[in-house]
Amino acid sequence: MSRSNQKYELQGINHLALVCSDMRRTIDFYSGVLGMPLVKTIELPGTLGQHFFFDCGGGNTIAFFWLADSPDATPGVAAPKGLPDEGELASAVGSMNHVAFAVPPEKFDEYYERVRSEGIKVSRILNHDDSRAGVAAHVHPGTFVRSFYFQDPDGIVLEFACWTRTFTDADVSHEPRTAADRRVPTAL
């Protein structure tokens, strides 16, 4: 199935901007652990902070703000409290739930072991499919993506993912839910 944007010629994600608490630690993780080259640094005007960009492949970048006045993280609101395979998926409307980096399918298992060997807590491998559970123990013809999750030093949930099949029209089959369908918790 080939679908293209008839309105704008978008060429992917230029960058995703996140907020960190310690830019040095962020560089150590994204460049040191994940191997992403630091490609641009910006000192923001006055004492506002910094904005640094890392090359995450395919002409895409992931960027971080270090802002002097940023409030502390709020797990469970701004991002999930933990990893999806632990049942932690919820984050607030308007939050950034996780960042998924595309990896080559033939290197997926190697990368899983490599991230684990860095001493990082890593989820189990999830073979996402259309079953009731949404994941399978093994790859099968209905598996559409394989992934695993981990967190950066600030608790941002990251995912390494690889598509395992081409989508068809049958892959768009669910009625969209609305705000009226939400189970909103009572006020704090």
Structure report:
The chain has 188 residues and is an alpha+beta fold. The protein folds into two domains: 10-70, 2,3-Dihydroxybiphenyl 1,2-Dioxygenase, domain 1; 98-171, 2,3-Dihydroxybiphenyl 1,2-Dioxygenase, domain 1, CATH 3.10.180.10. It has helices at residues 23-33, 108-117, and strands spanning 15-20, 38-43, 49-57, 60-67, 99-102, 126-128, 135-136, 145-151, 157-163. The strands form two sheets. Strands 5-9-8-6-7 form a five-stranded mixed beta sheet, with helices on one face. Strands 1-4-3-2 form a four-stranded mixed beta sheet, covered by helices on one side. Strand 3 and strand 4 (60-67) form a beta hairpin. It is globular, with a radius of gyration of 18 Å. The termini are far apart. The mean pLDDT is 87.
Within CATH, the superfamily of the largest domain carries the name 2,3-Dihydroxybiphenyl 1,2-Dioxygenase, domain 1
Structural class: alpha+beta
Strand order of the largest sheet: 5-9-8-6-7
Strand percentage lies at 25-35%
H/E series = EHEEEEHEEEE
The largest β sheet comes out as:
5 strands, mixed
Q: How many extended strands?
A: 9
Give the low-pLDDT segments: none
Number of helices: 2
Number of domains: 2
Global morphology: globular
Mean pLDDT: 87
Protein name: VOC domain-containing protein
Pfam family, one: Glyoxalase
Domain VOC: 12-163
InterPro entries: Glyas_Bleomycin-R_OHBP_Dase (IPR029068), Glyas_Fos-R_dOase_dom (IPR004360), GlyoxalaseI/FosfomycinResist (IPR050383), VOC_core (IPR037523)
